[in-house]
Known about the structure:
The chain is α/β, with parallel strands linked by helices.
Amino acid sequence: xxxxxxxxxxxxxxxxxxxxxxxxxxxxxxxxxxxxxxxxxxxxxxxxxxxxxxxxxxxxxxxxxxxxxxxxxxxxxxxxxxxxxxxxxxxxxxxxxxxxxxxxxxxxxxxxxxxxxxxxxxxxxxxxxxxxxxxxxxxxxxxxxxxxxxxxxxxxxxxxxxxxxxxxxxxxxxxxxxxxxxxxxxxxxxxxxxxxxxxxxxxxxxxxxxxxxxxxxxxxxxxxxxxxxxxxxxxxxxxxxxxxxxxxxxxxxxxxxxxxxxxxxxxxxxxxxxxxxxxxxxxxxxxxxxxxxxxxxxxxxxxxxxxxxxxxxxxxxxxxxxxxxxxxxxxxxxxxxxxxxxxxxxxxxxxxxxxxxxxxxxxxxxxxxxxxxxxxxxxxxxxxxxxxxxxxxxxxxxxxxxxxxxxxxxxxxxxxxxxxxxxxxxxxxxxxxxxxxxxxxxxxxxxxxxxxxxxxxxxxxxxxxxxxxxxxxxxxxxxxxxxxxxxxxxxxxxxxxxxxxxxxxxxxxxxxxxxxxxxxxxxxxxxxxxxxxxxxxxxxxxxxxxxxxxxxxxxxxxxxxxxxxxxxxxxxxxxxxx
Length: 578
C-alpha cells in the first residue's frame, strides 16, 4: 500500500511521515521534562496540543499514542510508586523513539530509492515502447505503400487504381457534372524490345516510361502500372469528353519521343483504349474490361493509335470470346481438318508435294477457313497446340502416302509455322518428336516461315533455323516480298526456297508490269542457290509467263484448289498411275 501511494506522489508521503515522526520525537523529549519539573498534571495537559499538532499534520494516530502513553504512565506510577523511577520511563521511551525514527527514516529512504528506481525503469520502458511503436508504424507505412504501389516504377498498382476508381464512381454518383475517364495503354511490340535489349534494359525503359506518363498528366490524375507493359490512367474532374481526348492525343504524341536507355535510343508507340461516359457503369471491373477491349481494338487496327470504347466493340469481344471457347472445344473434339493444295513443277507439270492448309469443321457453322479464326487463335495462344496438331497430322498423312504409293522422288509436305509456334523454346524437340512418331524422313518436311517471324529476333531465328537445317528439314520463306524491306537478312539464314507472294503473280495479268520484279527475284534466288515457288496461279497465261521467267514451282487454282485427304489420294494415284 505504501509503495502504491509512493508511486502516485512519493514526495507528499515523505513530508507527511517526517512531520508525524517529528511530532512524536518532540513529545517523547518534552514529556519527561514537563513531568519532572511541572508534575503529572502539566505533562498530561501537554498531550492535548501535541495531539492537535499531530492531527493537523495529518497523522491522527499521534492522538491515540499520547493517550496510551498517559495511561501507561499513570499505571506505572501506581505500580512503582516512585516518581523518579517513573520519570526514567519517558527517557527510555524517548531513546527508543529516536532510534525508531532513525530506522524508519532509513527505511523510507530505501523505499523511496526503490520507488525512484522503478519510476526511472518505467520511464525507460515507456521510452523504449514509444520507439518500438514508432518503428512499427514506419514498417506498417512501408508495407502499406508496397501493397499499393508497383515495386519497379513506384506508380500505383492495380489494387490502388481500382480503389481510386471505386471512389471516383461514388463521387460521380453524387456529382454527375464532375466527369472522369479511364485510359488504358499497352506498348506496341515491347516484347521485341525486351528480347533484343534484355530484360534489365526493358525494366529501365518501363521506369522511364512511367516517369514520362506521370509528368504528362495532372497531379489529380492517377497513373498505375497494371502489369507487364500495360498502364492505366484515371483522368478526373473534366468538364467534357473533348478534354479527355485532348489529354490522350497529347499523351500519344509525347510517347513518340525517343527514350535513351543504357546508350540505346528506343522509340515507343502505344495502343490506347479510352472509356468515357462512366455514369452508365456501376462496377469498376466493367470499366476496366471495356477499356481493355478498346485498347485491343486499337492494336488490331494497326497500333500506335487510340480507340474510344463503344458497344460494338463489346459485341465483337464477346464474339471473340465465343470463338476462342469454340477453338478450345475443337481441339478436344477433333474438329480440325487438313486440306492439301498440290505444288507443281512449272517445267514438267508434275506434282512435287502438297501444302497442308487448316480447316475447322464447325459443328454449327460448317467448314471455316483460317481467315475466320486464325487471328483469335494467335491472340489467345491456341495457335501453338493447333500448330502442333497440324504438323503431326500433315507428317502422318504424307508418310502414309509414301508407304502407299512409293513415288519417285518422294513427295514433300509444306507446313506453316506461326510466329508464336516458332518462338517456342522446345520447337526443335517438337519437330524431332513428330518425325520420330510418324516416320516421315526429315528431307520431305518443309516448314514455312514469314519474313516478319524470322526478323523479329534474328539471332534466335538463325540458331533455330540452323538446327532445323542440320536435321535435314527444308525452310521456306512464305509470302516473300511483302514483309521485310531489306534482303540482307537472306545471307544469315540457311533457307531452301522462297514462296513468292500471290500479289506478284496477279501483276502478270494486265500490262505484265510485275515481270521485272519477278525476274529479279528469280535471278537473286538462283544466285543464292534457292528455289522459287509462285503462289496464287489462277490462269494459263500466268503459268506460262512464270515458266518463261524460270520460276521453279507453282500452286494455285489453275492447277488445283485445296482438297481433302481422300481427294488428294486420288490425285496422287492418277498422277503417278498407281
